[in-house]
Design a protein that fits this description.
It is a single chain. This protein is an alpha/beta fold. The chain folds into 2 domains: about 1-110 and about 255-355, Isopropylmalate Dehydrogenase, CATH 3.40.718.10; about 115-250, Isopropylmalate Dehydrogenase (3-Layer(aba) Sandwich), CATH 3.40.718.10. It has 11 helices and 14 strands. The chain has a 10-stranded mixed beta sheet with strand order 2-1-3-12-11-4-5-10-8-9, sandwiched between helices. α6 (about 190-205) links the parallel β8 (about 180-185) and β9. The protein is globular, with a radius of gyration of 20 Å. The model has no long low-confidence stretch (mean pLDDT about 95). Bound molecules: 3-isopropylmalic acid and magnesium ion. Magnesium ion binds near residues 242 and 246.
Length: about 350
């Protein structure tokens, strides 16, 4: 039986990079059956809503979701804001599918080491941000603007249950790595952070096989630049995770390379999830064959690993990406002297060719 994949190309460069990801998964020998769905600005234009009910149904009836990117200047002023691609599309889909665990690995790839601003630094970076994705200030109520427009309110809410389930995911990921969790919060100021710390400590005392330290978010932002090699798994809440994962991504030297998984609870013993590059829709280069498809390809590798439990196929894809880079092939975003400039689809073809 083929795995069923809901493919949501989205906006901007989304469709171009997703084509390459699908191409590479097919070449990995894993049997998939893809069905396309609308999400984001393109869905808004065609159906009047950024998240049509058919898309939710498609995702729910699939084994995994592969997503390109959503948003662009065309929809930045859509009213009400709940109809914008990011809020009414992506955030609503995360919530709808209960994708509470966002896994964002950030690893320096050897062929690009010299591109990292921290190349003179000590240890190579190889960390995973485990970000809570369906709670906190992104979703808390009340949220409003006063009638006179002079005051705005957002609310940060966390429950014990929400903190505990993301902590469990972080420990699980840590067990497949160096078994060190750094829980990041702002406990010197925020009540939600004090609850966060309490719950993580309770969980840690029942799971002594993983070591846990706490770090304040401002310190963590600084430590990431000072010595990113010190981190294994960073466990944190929604907004801190958003910010820290962008920071970590740039330390690898290229935003265009980083994948992510957004996971829900397991279905039939396998993680159900949505897999997407951490970069955006880059409308300025859309349709020109200049986008870097490697983040989308590596996201598809995470899909193979997490949702389909096909680690060998995932390893093959990841090794092929490194081999293509090792040969000096570069898309425009990472191009430099003495490398070979290739288009989006040529990079996809090169990864396929490197797959053994
Ligand atoms: C991300 C993005 C989204 C987020 C935006 C597009 C709403 O920045 O996935 O990191 O903040 O979660
Ligand atoms: Mg972000």
């Amino acid at each position: 039986m083929p795995y069923k994949v809901a493919v949501l190309p989205g906006d901007g460069i989304g469709p171009e990079v997703i084509d390459e990801a699908v191409k590479v998964v097919r070449a990995s020998g894993i049997d998939i059956e893809c069905e396309d769905g609308l999400l984001g600005g393109v869905a808004y234009d065609e159906t009047g809503t950024p998240l049509p009910p058919e898309t939710i149904r498609l995702c729910e009836s699939s084994d995994a979701v592969l997503l390109g990117a959503v948003g662009g200047p065309k929809w930045d002023r859509v009213e009400p804001v709940a109809m914008r691609p990011e809020i009414g599309g992506l955030l609503a889909l995360r919530r709808e599918l209960n994708l509470y665990a966002n896994i964002r690995p950030a690893k320096t790839l050897r062929p690009l080491l010299h591109a990292s601003p921290l190349r003179e630094g000590r240890n190579l970076m190889d960390l995973v941000v485990v970000r809570e994705l369906t709670g906190g200030i992104y979703f808390g109520e009340p949220r409003s603007r006063s009638a006179d427009g002079q005051k705005a309110i957002d609310t940060c809410v966390y429950t014990r249950a929400e903190i505990e389930r993301i902590t469990r995911q972080a420990f699980q990921i840590a067990r497949g790595r160096r078994r060190q969790v750094t829980s990041v919060d702002k406990a010197n100021v925020l009540e939600t952070s004090r609850l966060w710390r309490e719950v993580v400590d309770e969980f840690a005392s029942q799971n002594p096989d993983v070591s846990v330290q706490h770090m304040l978010v401002d310190n963590c932002a600084m430590q990431l630049v000072r010595d990113p090699g010190q981190f294994d798994v960073i466990l944190t809440e929604n907004m801190f995770g958003d910010i820290l994962s962008d920071e970590a991504s740039m330390i690898t030297g290229s935003l265009g390379l980083l994948p992510s998984a957004s996971l829900s609870d397991d279905r039939n013993g396998k993680a159900y999830g949505l897999f997407e590059p951490i970069h955006g829709s880059a409308p300025d280069i859309a349709g020109q064959g200049r986008a870097n498809p490697l983040a989308a390809i590596l996201s598809a590798a995470m899909m193979l690993r997490f949702s389909f439990a096909e680690p060998e196929a995932a390893d093959r894809v990841e090794a092929a990406v490194e081999a293509a880079l090792g040969e000096g092939l570069r898309t425009a975003d990472i191009f430099e002297a003495n490398t070979k400039l290739v288009s989006t689809s040529e990079m996809g073809d090169a990864v396929v060719a490197k797959m053994v």
